[in-house]
Design goal:
This protein has 361 residues and is an alpha+beta fold. It folds into 2 domains: 131 residues, Creatine Amidinohydrolase, Chain A, domain 1, CATH 3.40.350.10; 224 residues, Creatinase/methionine aminopeptidase superfamily (Creatine Amidinohydrolase, Alpha-Beta Complex), CATH 3.90.230.10. The chain has 10 helices and 20 strands. It has a 6-stranded mixed sheet, sandwiched between helices. A 4-stranded mixed sheet has the order 8-9-12-20, with helices on one face. Strand 13 and strand 14 form a beta hairpin.
Length: 361
């Protein structure tokens, strides 16, 4: 995305560097490299100086890079580090900013050996996160497509019987439905957690059979064109008990209060506080054991963090989850999660499944 590259040109002086380097490998992929260039290959490096944009990759990706990374000078090379070092020297770079969390010690050691007169500087993570925290209209559209696909798939899944089925089989069917509606695949390991396993916030689908009378937490999302969705519903197999209804109502109320309170400019930790206080007032405070939400985009977990320790404000263009939950060991759990786009006038729900207690067979 050339807009991000232009932004980076103007940020070099503020960061105290002469150039910025993004590196992506099959071991340590960089979503920021993809965001800056549009290049989706698994191996590449980007060098941005005050006036130039370079993309280095190998022969596998030459045609792909030329089509995807418009506006970048393409270098198709066998020895990327050598070519990169030559270009850094030719540009007269003395301080090179690197995305430290996406490069290995081996990479930086070998690069420093080739560039003994260049100082490698770690670029603040807060700056890099800021590149992607506000989604463009095109990014929003891709996330919305993924969210719609996932919601439709879950709706189809829950028209079928769950009682007597193995959790892993239910998860596999849901992931097949993702692909049928155009997704590239699941965005993360699908969670299907029934009965007592629902008390596990990350209870990935197991070999457990779903029984009558159990709460079932289904947390799912898919990927389309690199962009993720994330949504959670809670079902009950058969007639719900009064305690199951009470738990669900506590989470539902917290979920809705948080969404209704969302405004551009409010502190992210205050959104969490609204939901947390609501669950505490219902008597379940100690059972809400995680933050209220997280950003979603090229990664399934990215800024902002809506939690008691979250920093910053809700901004126009952000996409994040609202997902309060209650988890009681030995009994089960309830989580309700919606994916939200923050418009200037208020929140827009991208995910579409009902957050009512869903009764299934």
């Amino acid at each position: 995305m050339i807009l991000s590259a232009v932004t980076l040109h103007g940020s070099l002086r503020r960061l105290g560097v002469d150039a910025l380097l993004f590196n992506s490998s099959e071991i340590l992929p960089s979503v920021n490299l993809r965001h800056v260039t549009g290049f989706t290959g698994s191996d590449g490096a980007v060098l941005i100086t005050a006036k130039e944009r370079h993309l280095f990759t190998d022969g596998r990706y030459g045609i792909q890079a030329r089509n995807e990374a418009r506006g970048f000078r393409l270098h198709v090379v066998r020895r990327r580090l050598d070519a990169l070092a030559r270009t850094v020297k030719a540009a007269g770079v003395s301080r090179l900013g690197i995305e430290a969390s996406r490069v290995s010690h081996e990479f930086t050691t070998n690069l420093a050996r080739r560039l003994p007169d260049v100082r490698l500087v770690s670029v603040p993570k807060s700056f890099l996160d800021g590149l992607r925290v506000r989604k463009t209209p095109e990014e929003k559209a891709r996330i919305e497509r993924a969210a719609r696909c996932a919601s439709d798939a879950c709706g189809s899944l829950l028209e079928r019987r769950l009682t007597g089925r193995v959790e892993k089989d239910v998860a596999a069917e849901l992931e097949t439905l993702f692909r049928r509606c155009g997704a590239d695949g699941p965005g993360f390991e699908t969670i299907v957690a029934s009965g007592e396993r629902g008390a596990l916030p990350h209870g990935a689908a197991s070999d457990k059979v779903i029984n009558v009378g159990e709460l079932v937490v289904v947390d799912y999302g898919c990927v389309i064109d690199g962009y993720h969705s994330d949504e959670t519903v809670t079902c009950v197999t058969g007639a719900p008990t009064s305690e199951q209804r009470k738990m669900h109502q506590a989470v539902y109320t917290a979920h809705m209060r948080a969404i209704e309170a969302l405004r551009v400019g409010m502190r992210v930790r205050d959104v969490d506080r609204i939901a947390r206080n609501s669950i505490a007032a219902a008597g379940y405070g100690k059972y809400f054991v995680h933050g209220l939400g997280h950003g979603v985009g090229l990664e399934i977990h990215e800024p902002p963090s809506l939690s008691p320790l979250g920093k910053g404000l809700v901004e126009e263009g952000m996409v994040f989850t609202i997902e309060p939950g209650i988890y009681i060991e030995g009994f089960g759990g309830v989580r309700l999660e919606s994916l939200v786009y923050m418009d200037r006038t208020g929140p827009e729900l991208l995910s579409r499944m009902s957050k009512d207690l869903i009764v299934v067979e």
